[in-house]
Structure formats: C-alpha cells, structure tokens
User: Fold these one by one.
Assistant:
Number 1:
Amino acid sequence: MLCGLARAAALRFRAPCARWSGSRAGVPAHVVDLRSDTVTRPGPAMRRAMAEAVVGDDDFGEDPTVRELQEKAAQLLGVEQTLFVPTNTMANLICVMGHCRRRGSQLLLGQECHLHVYEQGGVAQVHLLAQSHGARVHLDGARLMNAAVALRVPPARIVEHCDSVSFCLSKGLGAPVGALVGGPKDFIEEAWRLRKALGGGMRQAGVLAAAALVGLAEAEEVLPRDHENARRFAKGLQALASPICSVDPAAVETNMVLVKVEGLPPAELCQRLQSVSSDEVARTGRAVSVLLFPWTEQSVRAVWHRDISAQDTELALRKWEFVLRQLGP
Ligand SMILES: *Cc1c(COP(=O)(O)O)cnc(C)c1O
C-alpha cells in the first residue's frame, strides 16, 4: 500500500490562545493566532446548528445528521461511502489497517504528502505504478479542500485515482472535532468495524456532524478568503525587504506561509511577535500578540484560517514590521 501521510509536524501548543490576553504593557493585547488552522472556535451559526441537530445512536447507524454528513461528503469526494471518525489520525490508521490486513503487509510512506495532493498528475501516476505491483493508494487528504480550492478543481478530481481517502473537518473547515474516511462500500464496512475496535464509535455524534456540515457549506466562501489573506500577508512581508525575514509570495498556494528566518533563532522571532512591550504601545498605539510556531531551524510557519480576518492579517503584518525594526540595523 502506498500512502501519502504528511510529515507529522510536532506541534507544540503551549501559548495561551485567548483572543485577548493580558500583556506586560498592562493593556489587553489583540491576539492573532497563526499557529494552525486547528485553533478555530465554532462561531454562532455553527453553535446554533450543533444545538439544533437531530441526533440518534450513530453506533447503530441511527444518527440522521451523521448520515447526512457522510452522504454529502461521499458526493463531494466522489467515493461510494464515507465514515465519520473522531480524528484524521484515526482515519489514516483505519485505512492503513483496512488495506494491510495480512501480517507482513508493506506500507510505503511518501516523504511529502504535497506530492500527491498538489501535483494533479501525481496521484494518477502513483496509482499506475501501484496497480502494477498489486498495491493500494491511500490519500491523506487532511487539507484536501484547501488543495481543491487552490487548484480550482472539484475535490473528487484529486481523489479519483485513490483507493481510500481521509478528510479532516477540524482544520480549515472549522469544525471542533471530526474527520472522514472515504472509499468503496465494502472498504467502509470494514472501516466501521475497525473504528469500533479502536474505540472511535460515537453515539449522538450528530452534534459534531452538524458543525462539520456548516463548515462544509461555508468552505467555498471561507477557504479562498484564507488563501487570499495568506497571499496578501506574504506580499506585505516581502515589501518590508527585511534581511531577517524573507518569503516567496509565489510559493503561497493555500493557507500557509513559510517565512525564512536568518540572523536569529526562529523561536526568538516567535517570542518577540508574541510578547507586547510598553514600547510597542507607545510607538504604535496598539498591543498585538502574534502567535506562531518555529517550523525548521531557519523558518517559521504561519497558517490562516476562518478566525483570522483581513484586519487581523494587517495587524500581524504591522506587528512583524515593528519587531523587524527593533531588530534592524
Ligand atoms: C492534521 C493532519 C493529520 C492529523 O489530523 P488530526 O485530526 O489532528 O488527528 C493527519 N494528516 C495530515 C496531513 C494532517 O494535516
């Protein structure tokens, strides 16, 4: 089995992520949280849908809202059936277990899932290769919707040549919990048994599926906006022409911006962007705390999502400018 699992990012969620948090300068700071697209919180429409969801026991297949989500997602992904599971990690695990049922089965992992997701021909080629060796292809489609929006193709087009797919609902789509496994009917029947064995069977899960349905319905509006904000930020940062931080706006395809950092450790840059000094308040009249993660030894990663507005993006850029000036020659 061939599998496009992404390099597992060691995410270190340590900073408090209140929208407003106290700052050393004694005024509340406006927090722009760019650590990950998993930090979104359900808004009023999503919470209303959750409160009003019609539910049943999903372990008996009796939750109408989960069934609606599974059917809508199957259409979207162009697969026979999908199964709602708690996390994308479990979705991937179920697929691996479903494909590699014989002891001694081999699992080949790609170094970068981007190969499969972003290069349209890639999956088809891997599938040709895979078939000739009797292998199956699983697509880790955690951010499949972002890829589809960026490529301007229906998600089903990306999934077309895969034997199974996972799909995360709690990243850019903004649901609090959930992922889906997609594939042929018999594969999903097996996936259902595996989910149960792994302790992933849920009861009145319609409360969660309702949030995911809202996320899916809003994706076409939200994701292009996230991508646009990310691109605008990259262009703005490039325009600062800093010797410390550089970025290639042309490389920003989706909601992520990788910023190359030279001359100081990325962790220190993150610390400076997060903290608020009285100097900042005095000079800019603002207190903005930008949260993000060091990505490699020489880069930081910023991720856009539905809770980051165009104005937040501008505030993050101005904070960045302030920090770079402080560090500047
Ligand atoms: C986030 C992610 C996962 C894990 O998803 P969870 O829902 O956090 O378990 C797996 N694969 C990829 C590519 C991801 O981005």
Number 2:
Amino acid sequence: MIPRSSKVWQGPPWRKALSEAFTRPEALFEYLRLDPSLLPAAKAAAKTFRLRVPRGYARRIRPGDIEDPLLRQILPAAAEFDPQPGFTQDPVGDLAAGSTPGVLHKYQGRALLISTASCAVNCRFCFRRHFPYADARAERDQWATTLKFLAHNPNIDEVILSGGDPLLLDDPKLAGLAARLDRIPHLLRLRVHSRIPIVLPERVCGELLAWMTRSRLTPVMVVHCNHPNELADDVLRALESIRSAGITLLNQSVLLRGVNDRAEVLSELSVKLFDAGVLPYYLHLLDRVQGAAHFDVPEQEARFIYQRLRECLPGYLVPRMVREQAGAAAKVPL
Ligand SMILES: *Cc1c(COP(=O)(O)O)cnc(C)c1O
Ligand code: SF4
C-alpha cells in the first residue's frame, strides 16, 4: 500500500493544510502536551461543537500552557456545560432575519450571505455554534435564490460574504459569484468577512486577490483577529499582500475573558494590525450564546477596559465597541 503522505496532492495547497488540521482532541493534547485530566471534558465538548484547529495556528500556542490566549479560543472545555442563564442558541436573531435562505438582511443597504457551512477553525465562543447551516447556505442552489433577491432589492448596495467562512469555497466558485454580482447595477461594494487570513494564511493566494479586485465593486475585507499572538509572520505577509492588492482591510475582534480582556493586549493588537495595513473596525461584546458564558466580560468592565484603550492609542487605532442586539437596525455602540 502506498503511504498516504506520498500521494501527490492535486488541489490547491491550502486545502492540504486544511485537511491536516487537528480535529481529534487526543491529537491536539499530545501535540501541545496538555494535562490529560482535561481530555474527557474536551472530548465531550467536542461532540457538541467539533474541534478544528489548523496546524499553523496550533504552532503559535505555547505547549503545556492552559492559559494560552490562543488555546483558550479553540480548546473544547468543561465550562461549556456550566449552567448559563441568559445565554441562548440564537442570541442575535439570525434565524428570524433569514427570510431568503442564505441571506441575512438586517441592516439597511447591506445584505449578508451565508456562503458556506464551515470554518477553518472552530472558535468556542462563536455565536454560530448552533446555527443550522446546512439549511441556510446561499451556495446550495448555485446562488440562484440569493442573486434574485439582490437583483430585486435596489436599496442594497453592499454584499457581505460571510459564513461560516466564505474563503473555504474554491476561488473559481467565488470568482463566478463575484462576476455575477458585478452585473447587478445597484451594487457598489463587495465585502468579505473571514477569519482565514489569520488562521490559515496559506489560503491568501493570487487567485483570491484576482477575483476580489477584478470587478467593478470596491473590495473590502474584514478579518477577525483577537490577540497579537495570532499575528505570526506568515499571517502578516498574507495581510500585507491583501493590502497591496488595493483591498481595504479592517479587523473585528471579540472581547474575550482570558484572551484579550486587558487594554495592553488590545492596544498591542491594534498597533501590530496597523503595521500590517489593517485598521481596527469593531470590538464586539460577546454574543450571549449557550456554551460561551466563560468568555463573557461584563459590560461595566468592558467600558473600563475600553476607556483605558482610548487613553493609550491614537483615535484611528481604537475599534468601535459594539454589541449586537436582535432586532436593532445596526450594531449598538456602547
Ligand atoms: C454585522 C452585520 C452586518 C454588517 O454590519 P456593519 O456595521 O456594516 O459592519 C450586516 N448584516 C448583518 C446581518 C450583520 O450581522
Ligand atoms: S464564524 Fe468566525 S468566530 Fe465563528 S467559528 Fe467561524 S471563524 Fe470562528
């Protein structure tokens, strides 16, 4: 038998990197030399929301350090089973907003497409951990329903590809979508929301930059980085190449207990991002999703951290602190 590793890989290189991601808690525990007494809880929690961590991301975690801010974001943990009053399965009202499958049209002028079901990494705090993706993907019918919806809503001028992570789709498919969006005359901007440049920088390639910049639509990418340790050299290079292609690059973070709940950490993050051509956009308070209560920073404390952050950064490096509220017409500033 031919060993698996000697087979010739035919897809794009990033698909190979993705296929090698950690999905078994045992393997991650061994790789990071974590305390085995935490493994049973990790396995149980991974049954409710799967473990998924690209190897490149795992390399940025300090082995054996259970407090590592990157580890904390991806490690399935016992705390997910704690009683969590006020934390629900659909905290942001996405299920109510999805009248056209795959399209969330909550805010004036902008439509968000749920392009795909999965992500390159599974973040334990994510509000989408309970979202019934398989039913909602816009890509399911080759975008037909979505494109019809957009064409019939002339008040929409910006399309946001979100997910899941839209960059898990292959470039030819995304290029096809971009070309069809280009032909809807009232659209002006194409925005991509992705955590992939941060967690799987291999994905940022020439083909991706080509379809994002080739069309009439002004391209914007909003990445999702929560901690300066996430900005490894290959990530910085990927961000710089996006910026050099002429794509406006913004970052959103989530304020997370034990990850970035200090002004010094957030400040370092803003400075490093700016060096790589990325402007801070949003700092989200945690969506109150079941299983994520241990990441919550109470509003009072969040305000205090934010005040400190404003004191140590130029105004343009301070992200807007917001909360998502079901039914609100925009993200709600604090
Ligand atoms: C967050 C969000 C947007 C984008 O909001 P901006 O303030 O423009 O970044 C659009 N649609 C939905 C459904 C959202 O949740
Ligand atoms: S949608 Fe974003 S935050 Fe949620 S699991 Fe995917 S990458 Fe993580």
